[in-house]
Write a structure and sequence with these properties.
Layout (H helix, E strand, L loop, with lengths): L4 E2 L2 E4 L1 H9 L1 H9 L7 E2 H23 L5 H16 L5 E2 L9 H17 L3 E14 L6 E16 L2 E10 L5 H6 L2 H11 L6 E8 L6 E6 L3 H19 L17 H4 L1
Parallel strand pairs: 2-6, 3-4, 7-8
Antiparallel strand pairs: 1-2, 5-6, 6-7, 8-9
Helix pairs in contact: 1-2, 3-4, 4-5
Length: 263
């Protein structure tokens, strides 16, 4: 099975890994065959718009030392949401989601909660992209694929860089979600390999609950977690190379934009 390529060669991202682990058939349709989605899930569009608003807030701190005004943060969110809603691919809500129109009010409410506690950190970078080489854990050999991605936010606290990952979620993260999500593990590895040193890791989660809450959690990833991540990445790549592609039927099919092609 051919694999995704950039101009500089083969690549892998955390999103690709999570997609394959959830459903190899979805990975094939999206990344290998390039099938166009029949719709954009509302929650995906919402998350993207919410991230744009937070990037605007922190980007203004980076540029001027002062946070973006609250009304302008809300404007960024509304504009990003409108762009998604008016795009060529229609939005579709899961039956458990709120009506798409109500998501604007929900996003505004969540951003008010965020704004109240965000403060003015020392911002190093916003939407920080990286491309690094992965090395096989067992023999140290470099993998053919490069790991690529984007860190939401880099701030500096007491001389140390902190990688902050933004999330919008239905509820606060559980201990297991915080412990086993390998996205921050990838970021710690990528930060060190790209010269940022031994960074700290933090989740900033804004909930979609009736009264939005902001959950800020510092997390730890050790050498074992990094080794597990690389072994997972290596296993996924070997399976892709072997042409492994099968559907995993379950709850996720209901909101899959590739469901009609898969069937």
């Amino acid at each position: 099975m051919p694999r995704p390529k950039m101009p500089d060669g083969l690549y892998l991202s955390v999103s690709q890994m999570k997609t394959w682990l959830m459903c190899p058939r979805k990975y094939e349709l999206k990344y290998i065959r390039g099938v166009a989605p029949t719709f954009v899930p509302v929650n995906l569009a919402f998350g993207s718009a919410f991230h744009e608003a937070l990037a605007g807030y922190y980007g203004e701190i980076k540029a001027t030392g002062i946070p973006l005004r609250r009304d302008l943060v809300l404007d960024v969110f509304r504009a990003a949401w409108a762009k998604a809603a008016e795009g060529d691919v229609p939005l579709q809500a899961d039956e458990d989601d709120a009506d798409p129109g109500a998501m604007i009010d929900k996003g505004v409410s969540m951003l008010h909660a965020f704004y109240e506690q965000a403060g003015t950190p020392e911002v190093e970078s916003v939407e920080h992209g990286f491309t690094i080489t992965l090395h096989d854990v067992d023999n140290g050999e470099p993998l053919e694929e490069q790991l690529v991605g984007t860190m939401d936010l880099l701030i500096r606290e007491e001389g140390r860089v902190v990688v902050v990952e933004h999330k919008s979620a239905a509820r606060k993260y559980t201990e297991d979600q915080l412990r086993y999500d390998f996205q921050p593990t990838a970021y710690k590895l990528a930060a060190r390999e790209s010269g940022l040193g031994d960074v700290a890791l933090r989740f900033q989660i804004i909930t979609k609950s009736k009264v939005p809450a902001v959950q800020v959690v510092d997390i730890h990833r050790d050498d074992q977690a990094e080794a597990d991540f690389v072994r997972t990445a290596t296993g996924v790549l070997r399976a892709i190379d072997a042409g492994v592609s099968y559907p995993i039927r379950g709850w996720q099919c209901r909101g899959c934009p590739y469901g009609s092609t898969c069937r």
